[in-house]
Each structure stands twice: as structure tokens, then as C-alpha cells.
From TrEMBL, chains A, B:
One of its GO terms (molecular function) is DNA binding. InterPro entries: Tscrpt_reg_Rrf2, WH-like_DNA-bd_sf, WH_DNA-bd_sf. Keywords: DNA-binding. The keyword DNA-binding applies. It comes from the Bacteria. This is Transcriptional regulator, BadM/Rrf2 family. NCBIfam families: rrf2_super. GO terms for cellular component: cytosol. It holds the Pfam family Rrf2.
Length: 137, 137
DNA sequence: ATTAATTCTATCGATTTACTAGACTTTAGA
DNA sequence: TCTAAAGTCTAGTAAATCGATAGAATTAAT
């Protein structure tokens, strides 16, 4: 399941993608437009900025805007940024790999292979969902 | 990600599936064989029993055994039993549906459709992974 | 009756989650 | 240069969840 953070991030990106080119959106505007607690959204937007999905202008008349094409922002990326691994166990993960501590045969646990199959399919599906694909609904 | 409970459940089922027909396995035997904390495993086996994957014999010489074919126990079922919904949000879930509280257009949130696509693909993949498919590795 | 097993209920510490609070910094414009 | 309006940063917090443990109760074979 997605955390609220990830869900709000998607909704915020969706909001930004729906604005006119060159429009800058204030946090409060996004918060109200997408129904997200404002103070919580502040943190999320900072995370999105660190992830280079959006950028910001400070000071009066400042706000946020997309710096990545809505066609290039995928669900997979947002999931990883906020919720981490897409695989079902760390030992089956590409980006968040960790060996499992409780496997007797250290190199290969009994579940790893099957979970890697799942990961590949899920990842492929998640990479197919972009902000752009969500906007045109 | 899978919880430890779900992971241990899979490993316990795998252990049971590898035993001879008619063999009854004590909790402690499974715990040692699959490297799972015994007291924790007790709870998990009870859950698996309530889910009708295994059954038990009480008292001396008691223990656990599979009552469902290893070909018919899927990752999807175990995920649902221990970790709940497979969909990324409750509003996109088949078995754990709940409307999202923060969506303005109540019937359809902007993410729902895309997340249902993901759910269908993930579910299909997870239904393809059975205990039997994990055993023969 | 004894022993060995499952079953049930409760609890616990640590971590995570979903926020909130408030001080600080930056910028535009009067 | 002052002020209002914006983002930035660091903490904190209440509630829930997770991973596990404890111990008493029950059941069954000998």
C-alpha cells in the first residue's frame, strides 16, 4: 500500500501538471486544490524538490512548479522516493537490496526467486503509469 | 513489502510442503527448520489455520499439516491474510475496498483508475506464485 | 497422573506514520 | 528599508503498527 505521503505527492504532482505552463503554484493553493494538509504538504514538496521532480521560487509570489515532464514522472519513482522498495522483500529488491538475516542458505533464500518475478512485473506496470497518464482521465 | 509475518508464513508453508505426506510437524520443528522465532510462529500457524491453509492435531504428538494443495496456495492469498490489500490504495482494492476520505469527487479519485491497472497486473503475477512453484527450486 | 503438544490472551518496546508547531530565510514591492 | 508573503528547516507528538515474548489454559497420548 502507498503511504499518505506518496499518495499526496502524486496528487500534488497531478495538480501541478494540470496548471498552465509557467504557472507557479503556492503550497496553500495545491493543498486546497488537492485536499492535502498544508503543513504536511510542505514536507512532501521539499522531498519532491530534493528528488528533482519540482523546483521552487522562494519569497513573495513564490511557489512550486514541475521541472520534469509529466510523461517522465512514473509511479515507480514516486513509490521509491516515499515508500522505498517495490519488491516484496529486501533480498529481491534492485534499489534497496539487503540480504535477509533469517535465511540459512545465505546467498539464495527460498522466496527470493519468486519475489523477483513479481518485482519485475510490478515494476514494469508501475513504470507505465505516469503523471500524464493520470491527468488525462 | 511483506511483513515478517507473511514472510514467515510462506517459509512455514514451504517447510510443510516439503515434508512427507501424512507427516505432522511440531511448531518447534518448523521454527528450527525454517529459522523462525518459535513463539511468533505459533501465532502465524494459528492464523494459517483460521485461513484454512493448515490444520492441527492437539496434544502429545500433535502438530501442523497442510490441508490445502501446495499448488493452490498462492502468494496473493498469503499476502491478503497477513498484510491485507494488494492494491496500492484502499479505493483501488477488490477485497479491502474503502473510499478515500480526501477525494473531492467522491466516486472517482484521480489515482484510482491507474492503481486498479497496477492491482490487476500485480494480482495476476501473485496468483502465479504458489507454494509448489517455490518448492521446486 | 504425567508429559508434550497446541491455543489463547495479554503485554511490551521500538519504530513508523501522519501530522503540527514554530522559528528562520528569502523575495517583491511600497 | 520595511513589511508581507512566500518557502525552508528542525522538532515534537499522539496513535498505530510491528515483531516478538510470557505465561496460563487446554488437549491428547501413554
Amino acid at each position: 500500500m502507498l503511504s499518505h505521503k506518496a499518495k499526496y505527492a502524486l496528487k500534488a504532482l497531478l495538480y501541478l501538471a494540470e496548471q498552465d505552463e509557467n504557472h507557479i503554484s503556492r503550497t496553500v493553493e495545491i493543498a486546497e486544490g488537492a485536499n492535502i494538509p498544508k503543513k504536511f504538504l510542505e514536507q512532501i514538496l521539499l522531498d519532491l524538490k530534493r528528488g528533482r521532480f519540482v523546483s521552487s521560487k522562494q519569497g513573495k509570489f513564490g511557489g512550486y512548479y514541475l521541472i520534469k515532464s509529466k510523461n517522465d514522472i512514473t509511479l515507480a519513482e514516486i513509490h521509491r522516493l516515499f515508500d522505498g522498495a517495490i519488491a516484496l522483500l529486501p533480498c529481491a529488491s534492485l534499489n534497496f537490496y539487503e540480504p535477509c538475516s533469517d535465511c540459512k542458505t545465505e546467498s539464495e533464500c527460498s522466496l527470493r526467486h519468486g519475489l523477483m518475478l513479481i518485482r519485475d512485473k510490478t515494476l514494469k506496470a508501475m513504470e507505465g503509469i505516469t503523471i500524464a497518464s493520470l491527468v488525462k482521465k
